[in-house]
Specification:
Layout: H1 2-6, E1 12-13, E2 18-19, H2 36-52, H3 59-72, H4 90-97, E3 113-116, E4 121-124, E5 129-132
Antiparallel strand pairs: 1-2, 3-4, 4-5
Helix pairs in contact: 2-3
Length: 143
């Protein structure tokens, strides 16, 4: 990547594919951009700032424009259909990856029962019992 810099190339790097034009503004360089936590933090900050800059329109339009800006630096390029991606735009590709969380209804007061100690948590519902045996055993598969 230092070679890309010397050649004056524009590139994106890290998990969030942060564009090299943003490095200086956000205190990144060719090494720190690969710090996963920092990369995600800065990527989220850039996307949030892009969203907050949007004037007018619905929140859905604002997030789509923010995604376009994240991808290309402007509100238009992210909507352009690309041959290499089955004719889909960047915004369309992100939308395809998004999912909706089903609405959660408030539980019946008698439907849930929680018992918790330092290392053992048991949740009893009307249909089943889930027991987590140790706080460090996050998947509950260690016996």
């Amino acid at each position: 990547m230092n070679t890309l810099d010397r050649q004056g190339k524009n590139y994106s790097a890290g998990l969030m594919q942060i564009n090299s034009k943003n490095f200086q503004s956000y205190g990144l360089d060719n090494n720190t951009v690969f710090d996963v936590c920092k990369n995600i933090q800065i990527g989220a900050k850039i996307l949030t700032e892009n969203f907050e800059r949007q004037q007018g329109g619905s929140d859905q339009k604002k997030i789509r424009n923010a995604l376009s800006r994240y991808y290309s630096g402007n509100d238009k390029r992210g909507y352009v259909k690309e041959f290499n991606y089955d004719g889909k735009s960047y915004v369309e590709r992100v939308e395809q990856k998004a999912y909706k969380v089903p609405a959660l209804l408030p539980p019946d007061e008698n439907a849930l029962e929680f018992n918790s100690s330092k290392d053992i948590t048991t949740v009893k519902t009307e249909t089943n019992i889930i027991e987590k045996t140790s706080s460090w055993d996050v998947f509950g598969d260690f016996k």
